[in-house]
Amino acid sequence: MTDPDLERWRLVLGAPAAALGSLGPDGLARDAALDWLYGRDGDLEKRDVRRGDGRAGGDGPSQLTTVDWLDDINRLFPRETVERLQRDAIERYEITDIVTDPAVLERVEPNPALLKAVLQTKHLMNPEVLRLARRIVEAVVRDLMAKLATEVRAAFTGARARRPSRWRQARDFDMTRTIRANLGHYRPEERRLFIETPHFFSRTRKHVEQWQVILLVDQSGSMVDSVIHSAVTAACLWGLPGVRTHLVAFDTDVVDLTSEVDDPVELLMRVQLGGGTDIGRAVRYGAGLIEQPRRAIVALITDFYEGGSPSLLIRTVRELVEQGIRVLGLAALDQDANPSYDRDMAQRLADVGASVGAMTPGELATFVAEQVGR
Fold first, then answer.
1. Is the separation of the CB atoms in 20 and 10 below 8 Å?
2. What is the pLDDT of residue 217?
3. Which of 157 and 62 is assigned the larger pLDDT?
4. Is residue 258 helix, strand or coil?
5. What's the half-sphere exposure (Cβ side, CA atoms, 13 Å) at 100?
6. Which of these, 94, 115, 144, 119, lies nearest to 249 by C-alpha position?
C-alpha cells in the first residue's frame, strides 16, 4: 500500500478495511499502536468489530507496555496525533500510569492533556512521582503564560479614546466610522464596499484608579480546564497597573489562593479537584473582599450546578449588582470557551443582572482592561 490516503483509512477502520491493501512495516507498527489503545473499547466487541491483528476489543493481555506504546507513538505519529492519543488514553480509557509511572513520566512530552491528568491524579502519587509530574505542570504553564501574556499586554497597552488617530494599527481600526465614511464607494452589483480612507482610534495611557479583580473558581473535576486557565490568567494580571487580583478556589469549602497567584505552578499543585459545590458560599466570600464596589469585577467561574442554597446564591449576586459591581458568570474560562453548564441557574443569575457566558483568558483580560481604562 503506497497511497497515504488509503493507508490512513486502513488505519482508521482497522482489519475490516483489509481489502484496501496490505500495510508496510511502519503502517503495521501504527496499526499495532492504535490497536493497543482503541482495541480495548468495549463498543467494538458489542458491534463485532475487530481491529489490527484480529484481537477483539476488551481487557485482554497486551504485549506492549505503556512505556513501549509511548515510545512507538512518538516515533510513528506527528505531535498533534500523539497528543490526541495521549488524551484518549487518559480521559477515555483511564490509563493513569501515563502520569503515575516514573518510567513513563521520564519519557512523556508535556502537553495540556497531561497537565489535566496530573492535576486529577496527583493525590495518587508518591513524592518521587510528584517531582517528575511537576515537570509537566511547569512546562505547560510556561507555554500558557507566554501565550496569554502577549494578549494581556495588548489589552493593557492603552484604552481607546473616541477620537481619530493618524497612527494606523489594526487593533485600533474604527470599523463604524470607516464604513460610514466610505459608503459612497459601495458597489451593489458586486456587493462590495471599497475602502478609500480607513479610520482609526487613538490610544492614550490614562491615569487609572485601582480596580479589584476577584476570580472565584469552581474546582470540581469538570472545571479542570478553567482552573488551569484561571491560575494562568491571575498570574498574568498580577502586578499590572490599576489592577489588584484575587484568586479564590472553592468546592464546599473556600480557599483563598491570592498569596500564591504569582506562582501558578505551586498554586495548581495545591488545588484539590473534586468534591461538592457551594457557589453561594464562594460568592459571599468574594463579596467580603470588595473595598470599592464601583471599581470591582467579580468573575464567577463555574458550571452553575449549585450544591448549596440557590436562593442564597441568587440573592448575593443581586446584591453585588445593585452595588455597582461588575459580575461575570463564566461557564468556562479556557481556550475553547465551549462549556457544559446548568442553563437554568445561569439564566436566573442573568435575570438579576450578572453577565453570563464563556470567555477565553484573552477576552477576560480585554474586558478587565476596558473597565480599568474607562
1. yes
2. 94
3. 157
4. helix
5. 14
6. 119
β-strands 254-256, 243-250: how paired?
antiparallel
| Residue in this structure with the C-alpha cell 469549602, named with its chain if needed | 253
**Buried-exposed string 241-257: b where 16+ CB fall within 10 A, e elsewhere:** ebbbbbbbbbbeebbeb
Q: Which three cell numbers stand for residue 141?
A: 504553564
* pLDDT for residue 129 is more than 80: yes
The torsion angles phi and psi of 88, rounded to 5 degrees, stand at -65, -40
Grid cell for residue 64:
506492549
Could you tell me the pTM of the whole model?
A: 0.67
119-152: b or e for each residue (b if 16 or more CB lie within 10 Å)? bbbbeebeeebbebbbebbbbbbeebbeebeebb
CATH of domain 211-372: 3.40.50.410
Task: Report domain extents, the chain.
Answer: 159-204, 211-372
When pLDDT is averaged across residues 167-191 and rounded to a whole number, the result is: 79
Length of the chain in terms of residues written: 374
Rounded to 5 degrees, φ, ψ at 299 are -105, 110
Q: How confident is the model at residue 59 (pLDDT cuts 50, 70, 90)?
A: very low
Structure confidence at residue 18 as a pLDDT band (50, 70, 90) = low
Kind of pairing between the strands at 296-301 and 211-218: parallel
- Non-local CB neighbours of 132 within 8 Å, separated by 6+ positions: 102, 105, 106
